[in-house]
Amino acid sequence: MSEHLRVAVIGHAFMGAAHIHAWRTAPQFFDLPRRPEVALLVGRDEARVREAGSRLEIPETSTDWLAVVQREDIDVIDICTPGDRHAEIACAALEAGKHVLCEKPLANTVAEAERMVQAARTAEAAGSRTFCGFSYRRTPALALARRFVEEGRLGEIRHVRAQYLQDWLSDADAPLTWRLEKEKAGSGSLGDIGAHSVDAAQWISGQRIEGVSSLLHTFVPTRPISGDRAGLGGTASSSAERGPVTVDDAAAFTARFSGGAVGVFEATRYALGRRNANRLEINGSLGSIAFDFERMNELQHFDGRDDQEAQGFRTIQVTDVVHPYADHWWPVGHGLGYGDLFVHQMADFVASLEAEPLRPDFADALEVQRVLDAVELSAAQDSRYTPVQRGEEHD
Amino acid sequence: MSEHLRVAVIGHAFMGAAHIHAWRTAPQFFDLPRRPEVALLVGRDEARVREAGSRLEIPETSTDWLAVVQREDIDVIDICTPGDRHAEIACAALEAGKHVLCEKPLANTVAEAERMVQAARTAEAAGSRTFCGFSYRRTPALALARRFVEEGRLGEIRHVRAQYLQDWLSDADAPLTWRLEKEKAGSGSLGDIGAHSVDAAQWISGQRIEGVSSLLHTFVPTRPISGDRAGLGGTASSSAERGPVTVDDAAAFTARFSGGAVGVFEATRYALGRRNANRLEINGSLGSIAFDFERMNELQHFDGRDDQEAQGFRTIQVTDVVHPYADHWWPVGHGLGYGDLFVHQMADFVASLEAEPLRPDFADALEVQRVLDAVELSAAQDSRYTPVQRGEEHD
Amino acid sequence: MSEHLRVAVIGHAFMGAAHIHAWRTAPQFFDLPRRPEVALLVGRDEARVREAGSRLEIPETSTDWLAVVQREDIDVIDICTPGDRHAEIACAALEAGKHVLCEKPLANTVAEAERMVQAARTAEAAGSRTFCGFSYRRTPALALARRFVEEGRLGEIRHVRAQYLQDWLSDADAPLTWRLEKEKAGSGSLGDIGAHSVDAAQWISGQRIEGVSSLLHTFVPTRPISGDRAGLGGTASSSAERGPVTVDDAAAFTARFSGGAVGVFEATRYALGRRNANRLEINGSLGSIAFDFERMNELQHFDGRDDQEAQGFRTIQVTDVVHPYADHWWPVGHGLGYGDLFVHQMADFVASLEAEPLRPDFADALEVQRVLDAVELSAAQDSRYTPVQRGEEHD
Amino acid sequence: MSEHLRVAVIGHAFMGAAHIHAWRTAPQFFDLPRRPEVALLVGRDEARVREAGSRLEIPETSTDWLAVVQREDIDVIDICTPGDRHAEIACAALEAGKHVLCEKPLANTVAEAERMVQAARTAEAAGSRTFCGFSYRRTPALALARRFVEEGRLGEIRHVRAQYLQDWLSDADAPLTWRLEKEKAGSGSLGDIGAHSVDAAQWISGQRIEGVSSLLHTFVPTRPISGDRAGLGGTASSSAERGPVTVDDAAAFTARFSGGAVGVFEATRYALGRRNANRLEINGSLGSIAFDFERMNELQHFDGRDDQEAQGFRTIQVTDVVHPYADHWWPVGHGLGYGDLFVHQMADFVASLEAEPLRPDFADALEVQRVLDAVELSAAQDSRYTPVQRGEEHD
In chain D, which residues touch B (CB < 8 A)? Predict the structure, then answer.
């Protein structure tokens, strides 16, 4: 490993910590062309970014993201802020010739996302790489599902069934956090978790969503303004002053795919008992796959070509040496965790710098954004079937 | 048990056999006010109905249903024919003052169903009883789910998620049977299996579906005209002449419920590997339930009031003496089967003759029909949100 | 179906009711050479047997079993009494030339069982048939497991892992019933439920248990003498007088099989939460199977010859037309229940009268008894490895 | 975080890599009194240890473990070699006043383990800490199980059921590795994986194993001497020269616990399809728990005090803020992986340096060794019940 790859991480909450751990761990388990190192941590509050930098052993911290993205000695800008800051930072970084890794969703609006893709086109022509952090693609089980589709194990795809169910808003007195404010978060369950389903469904099926008919709903219109957060949800006194929830609590939509498949999607934070049930099932003419992130090391697979008397969904433990990513880790049956997905992502990203660009890039992420946009539009128009606007072809 | 209750069963295919077994078994396990006996079996083909009558030990057979429904010595008409015959037979039987048990769907069109309800109103005033065979209501696990909702264990209901997934049409060369002809079957997956989901969802949630936005799809537009049937699907030579499939292969719709819940429904016969996955999940503010008929003796239940460290979906084996129906059968842990649901249904029906009418009656079944009608209408109108037409209130 | 097969059932508790239902249902779903009918019900208490006979619609009842087994017009004696009566009744019935179906365990001691086998040999030579009711063999999933072993899908068998876990004695104040008295029940968990595991393990593996090393334990040495029974366990006031439990509460043993497999067995009624977990797992050099009666319609199957990337335990729904028994019932995915096993048993028994004798016969059941005997002997001798005594070869 | 804690890791195979990653990751997610750093990596082969050191970014490497354990600037010796080297290295390190963390099993014989405990006693008196790497104790789900027992949720414990099932030796032509040689590995499945079960069973139940009756078996007595390893098992040409397997392939034993519980244990590498099924079930008078490492983020829990109609095993996702370790990681429902257990272990170890010693220490590990010794003795004596020899009390 010759040269170091110097990364500046912007944001140090939950997602920033996951990224930093991943940049550091990747070269221990993957043989990479360059060794990444987190050289700089950027935050808004000086005291807090210093504390985080010290705890995470990062050599330097800053509160001036613009100066950082322009520094000569930085190779990669890794954006872990809320969505309303993505466009500005990414465009500046691309203009400065950096590689840019941006958390999902790419932006809060299609317009912002289009601006980012525009900037990406120019910068990519000059050697920059862009990448959007739909991290679930790095789940070995989902990567295996994609492989199964490519190998033709599913045949012609007919059904895509995607649910992303969480429950941290079930308590009507859980506090009003930034994720419930349209200004910061762009949308609610749709953009936060439904976006993952849309990306995974299109990627694994190999088909694009062509149109949708949707319903958005907010169950609890006001919530206590403050309160200590614990985990995603936290609790707040019910006597606190309440403010308006300006995003959707739940999203449900049907979809038609480019290859003829029919899709059903649902995203919610009110499915009590479902902690992080990011589920995907695809049925084809020859086989099916089913996945639930709550059992992230398993892929369910039905092979319709098995002897009839011995047919059944197989519970594949996707931890064997022949499985995606698994040969870099532990012996078979010793599962991976959520944090390891980011290790895969960073390893793939670094490896791709000297190979094909890693997907999803900004243009792919814009396509997801366009689907979310159609979902919002359909919901606003009596659920009418709404085609997804498409840009130029990207493939 | 004083007096016998004389039943005439019309139809002797799969469903007729299930009913006959159930009429006979019910009094062995349930203490009933009258002992039912199947006195007459009616079929269209004389040789075949005789053979069936002999095998099933039924004292008398007939090919003249009209004469049968008018006989003095018959108390109950049990209709197990395809849906296109329901209205005619049921109306004649009601006119003759019989109790009528009719398989679902009640009819192939709302107009027919309305006519049946009209006839039912008159006959019920004179003492007749009507009942529609949504047999899944007799599943102990679903009856327990209903009880949990009534006990308030789920709190305010937010999500209803219903899937009915089968796979017997996955093979594009499976033959064209009557279930694929609109004239006979009325509709495809929607009326055949989606109807069960609609009935169960409304019954268990205690809320009505107020409107829907839907998508219907036919994956395989033509199929071989003949072929030996094996099970539901069977196989046919792919060289056979093909005829048009005139019903939907799959139905998907979102829904709004009268109490504020959001619903997502899907019915298909193309979910390869899902044999009879009649699934229902309901999430409330205090708890959730989840069910899959493929594990019909289990109810999943999440109680949000459990200690936080010990929360999790419980797999309840609904076979204990305190559970619905279970005290009539085996010791705990010794599950029931599909055929036993009909035993419950017949036992409940007979018991109800001297008590409150058993639900769903024809009027309830018409309400299901109206939902299916709205689904078809929405699908024909670009998935636009379509309110369910309601008749007079029935409760 | 020409001639009727007249059956007298002795005993009308839980097991008698299951048998009667099964005799009656079998000809409705299976094409049998003779139609069985329960002509006589025998009980000890005149009032109670009359009441049962009336409820179950049996033409005649009696309290004199000896007279019944000698009647000319009876073909089959079906013994559903506690184990201490089996030998006397069966021997008398065999002497009278009847076919004898006897509930398991065959007898309470090896000596009694040997006497029964002696009587069976003589009677069988004269045309009688004997059969012992290890009903779990009629579970479609276990019959499929047996088929898989025969087809060589498992290869060389190495491990047999059998647990039969119930929990109805977990409450130390559950009452002292006849199943806890050595005199009546012979043994406790070992003979009642462990016997099923031994029979299934030997049958499915195709190997005999050659020796065992065991441990028996009684957790609760005294229990309240009376109390209303509810299900198997029931509750009793803790202030009631207590009597001694004279059987084992739990049995655990390791075993060596004739073909080189290693076995681990456990039977208990104290596994709180396990209602009827009759489990069997077999691992071979090419494949594995796993079963749990709490999900009786499923067989888990691992095929080591699957592509490495797609290997995993398959959950087979054993309800397809190609599966044992399933073609006589409902469409795929519509499961069977515990009561249906007895229907299979009676159908198999009747069909076998004009074919090969149905297994397990009395001689097979004696072999199970000998294993249980070795388990008791080993437990009494410091768990020392104890060979199973074998009689003449029977195959 | 003031002072660094300097660690030398001895061994750099699978387990060494896991430890190094964990030492480095622990301070990123846990607030520790001292920041650990891996200062030195020791291996036998100079070229290979250098390569590993470079890849893992360890400042210094060595092939002279004795010199390393005596260096002033090293605080902790972390032993990741095969078991035959443990005693020598650990004793030297303790003599030099180091803290010693040793992989399990503590040693290959009880005599060695006793010598290590002797050395530990002296060194601990002078301030050293010892720890044995039974890493499964750091699984959140098992730590929660321990907490449930301590909280009394299980009541009086009756059954302990532990299986550790792997399958990497199912292929009779898998190569002869060091784990199959008694000299290096001490024992086979018993010491390698059965040891984990013994430690977990005693720790969680809070009871000691008092005696055992056991059976050891070797299914494949010779194996190909060489072959490329892939994962634990790998494949070798079946034509290769074969050498003797000198350890047990499978171990099975029953046990009696100090508090009256009955145990059944099984360890094997021939359970085809079970990749790493480290399973534990405990049944008490009030509740039960069940765990399978293949679903390491879940604990099954049955609470017998739940309403009877709502009783069932709960699937607890042990990822909530109230669960052991989970508050240091991701939001609820985002599971951990195998590698994270070592992070917990190192974090706990460092935290304990300024608090109570972390368990299991060497003395605890010796107790496990004594159980394994009794298992081997019983197997050699016709499975006779064999009491576990106990040293002085340690608690």
Answer: 144, 147-148, 153, 298-299, 301, 303, 306, 308-317, 320, 322-323
DSSP string of A133-145? E-GGGG-HHHHHH
Task: Name the residue among A251, A257, A274, A276 with its Cα closest to residue A191.
Answer: A251
Pick the CATH number of C137-351+361-380 from 3.30.470.10, 2.40.30.170, 3.40.630.30, 3.30.360.10: 3.30.360.10
- Mutation pick from B283, B303, B306 vs chain A, by most beta carbons of A within 10 Å, is B283
Structure tokens that stand for D267 in this block = 């360890």
User: Using the beta-carbon criterion (under 8 Å), do A254 and B256 form an inter-chain contact?
Assistant: no
* C322 contacts on A by Cβ (under 8 Å): 308-309
Q: Under an 8 A CB cutoff, do A252 and B266 touch?
A: no
Which tokens hold the place of C326?
């399933």
Question: Tell me, which fold does domain B137-341+356-380 have in CATH?
Answer: Dihydrodipicolinate Reductase; domain 2 (3.30.360)
State the distance between the two ends of chain D, measured CA to CA, in whole angstroms.
Answer: 31
- Superfamily the domain C4-134 falls into: NAD(P)-binding Rossmann-like Domain (3.40.50.720)
Distance from the Cα of residue B225 to its chain's centroid: 27
pLDDT band at B229 (very low <50, low <70, confident <90, very high): very low
Subunit contact D28:A17, Cβ cutoff 8 A: yes
- pLDDT-based confidence at C320, cuts 50/70/90? very high
**Nearest chain A CA: its distance from D316 CA (Å):** 10
Looking at domain A139-380, its CATH superfamily turns out to be Dihydrodipicolinate Reductase; domain 2 (3.30.360.10)
CA gap D8, D42 in Å, rounded: 7
Q: Which residue of A has its CA nearest to B250?
A: A262
**Measured between alpha carbons, how far is D162 from C170 in angstroms, rounded to an integer?**
20
Q: Which of D253, D270, D384 sits opposite C384 (nearest CB)?
A: D384
Phi-psi region of A118 (alpha: psi -120 to 50; beta: other; left: phi over 0): alpha
Q: Are B113 and B339 in contact, with CB atoms under 8 Å apart?
A: no
Cβ atoms D293, D279 nearer than 8 A: yes
Partner residue opposite D317 with nearest CB, options B148, B312, B317: B312
Instruction: List the chains bordering chain D where 3 or more Cβ pairs fall under 8 Å.
Output: A, B, C
Distance, CA of D12 to chain centre:
17
Lookup: tokens for C364:
């097979």
Contacts of C264 in chain D (CB under 8 A): 252, 264, 266
The tens place of each residue's pLDDT in chain A, 395 residues long, gives: 458 999 999 998 889 999 999 999 999 999 999 999 999 999 999 999 999 999 899 999 999 999 999 999 999 999 999 889 999 999 999 999 999 999 998 998 999 999 999 999 999 999 999 999 999 999 999 999 999 999 999 999 999 999 999 999 999 999 998 889 998 888 899 999 999 999 999 999 999 999 999 999 999 999 998 654 444 444 555 567 999 999 999 999 999 999 999 999 999 999 999 999 999 999 999 999 999 999 999 999 999 999 999 999 999 999 999 999 999 999 999 999 999 999 999 999 999 999 999 999 999 999 999 999 999 999 999 999 999 998 766 66
Residue D240: pLDDT band (50, 70, 90) is: confident
Peptide bond into B221 cis (omega under 30): no
- Name the residue among D144, D309, D316 with its Cβ closest to that of B323: D309
Q: What is the ipTM of this complex?
A: 0.96
What is the average per-residue pLDDT within D128-145?
A: 97
Place domain B4-136 in its CATH homologous superfamily.
NAD(P)-binding Rossmann-like Domain (3.40.50.720)
Distance CA D349, CA D30 (A): 12
In the block, tokens 């009539």 appear at B328
SS3 content of chain C, % helix, strand, coil (to 5): 35, 25, 40
